[in-house]
Amino acid sequence: MLAGKKVVVVGGSSGIGLSTAELATREGAEVIIASRNADRLNAAASTLGAKAMPTDVTNDESVENLFRNCGPVDHVVVTAAQLRTGPFKTVAMEDVRATMEGKFWGAWRVARSAEIRPGGSLTLVTGYLSIRPRPNSAIISVANGALESLTRALALELAPVRCNAVSPGIIDTPIRAAMPEAARRDMLAKTAASLPVGRVGVGEDIARQILAFMTIGFATGSIVYLDGGGLVT
Length: 233
Prior knowledge:
single chain, alpha/beta, Rossmann fold, seven-stranded parallel β-sheet, 7 strands
């Protein structure tokens, strides 16, 4: 479905981004993956047969250089996030600002710098805490909500480029690797038991929706919540 198309996945070295890059490659796209971790990025690119471009989304010049080197592209996906959180009253302002820089302003920079061909797409990845917050995660809720508002605004400002967002629920990706393994497994098992689908998500679940946004020309300004039924339980 993507034969002859150039796809850039920012955050493409792991998790949802890597799953998206894998799926786009299987569908025939020329894939460029970008992230801060050069070693992990190069390893992923080698496995995929993709092009690697080390990029720090918190740095204006780094993002500008990425798209200067890419030239015109057909589809851009932003999954990059650097999340730091904690109790609202005590979380360090440095951590709050870092979360917004990595998730919201990073996506803003990408959207400004990318030269997307008419009819192409920009897909942002948010998170369902935007509409179902939980304690100790206020800044993540705020970043996700801001990205969803940005999605709708860019659907107008960037037209005829299409802009959409996917908002995942609990996904088993390496972003949770910082948790102790026993605690991670317990959290995922309890989450799976609470969901109508009986499992947590995996990267490919979200990647398939991102691919749909790339290929459905009538989709823009849309936000899809993929949470296994988390919002109705």
